[in-house]
């Protein structure tokens, strides 16, 4: 990944771009399907002017949702298949996860999806202001050590551009199994212009009605960690 455009901000990314060996079928999905699922020019190399994406052209004027860090893509495909009247963009830098998603898209035959195989912050740059109706941040990397908390997604570096691209009244869902991540989320997300919508404990203890459990959540449950489901509304 080249980073030599003069205006390109330095963005630390501490996750993984590539993990274990890709299966031949996954390489085929990446070669054959990924380009056609592009939301448009997101990367600095192809869009140094940071021109906005044409979301109406992409999804025919449908409302647009966004999933940040979709992992293996089970939730993204589930939402796309159950909501054909919306378009959904997923961002995920981990190419093995992207390949897993592409296999699921083939099987689901969904056509209302776009995939940015990279950092959500690069996508925020080129999303028009107030263009997204719903966003999902499901089991973001926990970064448990105190000195690493500033690497978490729920910091103003990520939340301010997210707030800018969300429509007033848009819903932002966060799921996490880490109690200290709940604390930081409840402190930081409202500062960026969101209201937490919980009225009673079941609102954060029970999953959303349209939920499908993700790979990471299944691992958390096996290890006796407790999911929390936080729902915010973009104010304005
Ligand atoms: C713990 S995993 C959870 C994956 C999935 N949401 C699930 O619940 O199974 C967190 C994911 O966020 C991705 N991620 C981390 N930083 C990101 C960023 N800046 N933009 C997009 N995705 C990111 C990671 O690559 C990783 O796949």
TrEMBL record:
Binding site for S-adenosyl-L-methionine: 67, 92, 119, 141
Binding sites annotated in the UniProt record for substrate: 145, 177, 214-217
Keyword Transport found: no
PROSITE patterns: SAM_MT_TRMB
Pathway noted in the entry: tRNA modification; N(7)-methylguanine-tRNA biosynthesis
Catalytic class of the enzyme: transferase
Gene Ontology MF terms: tRNA (guanine(46)-N7)-methyltransferase activity
Reactions catalysed according to its record: guanosine(46) in tRNA + S-adenosyl-L-methionine = N(7)-methylguanosine(46) in tRNA + S-adenosyl-L-homocysteine
Keywords assigned by UniProt, alphabetized: Methyltransferase, S-adenosyl-L-methionine, Transferase, tRNA processing
Presence of the UniProt keyword Transferase in the record: yes
EC number(s) on file: 2.1.1.33
A single GO cellular-component term on record: tRNA methyltransferase complex
A Pfam family the protein falls into: Methyltransf_4
Family as reported in the entry's similarity comment: Belongs to the class I-like SAM-binding methyltransferase superfamily. TrmB family.
Record function comment: Catalyzes the formation of N(7)-methylguanine at position 46 (m7G46) in tRNA.
Protein name: tRNA (guanine-N(7)-)-methyltransferase
């Amino acid at each position: 990944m080249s980073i030599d455009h003069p205006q390109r901000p330095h963005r630390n990314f501490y996750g993984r771009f590539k993990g274990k060996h890709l299966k031949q079928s996954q390489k085929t999905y990446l070669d054959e399907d990924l380009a056609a699922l592009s939301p448009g020019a997101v990367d600095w190399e192809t869009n140094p002017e940071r021109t906005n994406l044409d979301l109406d052209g992409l999804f025919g004027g449908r409302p647009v949702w966004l999933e940040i860090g979709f992992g293996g893509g089970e939730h993204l495909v589930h939402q796309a298949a159950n909501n054909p009247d919306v378009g959904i963009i997923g961002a995920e830098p981990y190419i093995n996860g992207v390949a897993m998603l592409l296999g699921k898209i083939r099987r689901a035959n969904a056509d209302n999806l776009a995939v940015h195989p990279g950092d959500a912050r690069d996508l925020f740059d080129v999303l028009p202001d107030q263009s997204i109706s719903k966003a999902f941040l499901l089991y973001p990397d926990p970064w448990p050590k105190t000195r690493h908390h500033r690497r978490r997604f729920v910091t103003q570096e990520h939340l301010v551009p997210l707030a800018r691209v969300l429509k007033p009244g848009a819903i932002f869902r966060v799921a996490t199994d880490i109690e200290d991540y709940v604390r930081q989320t409840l402190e930081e997300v409202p500062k960026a212009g969101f209201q937490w919508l919980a009225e009673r404990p079941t609102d954060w203890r029970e999953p959303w009605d349209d939920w499908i459990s993700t790979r990471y959540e299944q691992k958390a449950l096996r290890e006796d960690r407790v999911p929390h489901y936080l729902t915010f509304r973009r104010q304005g």
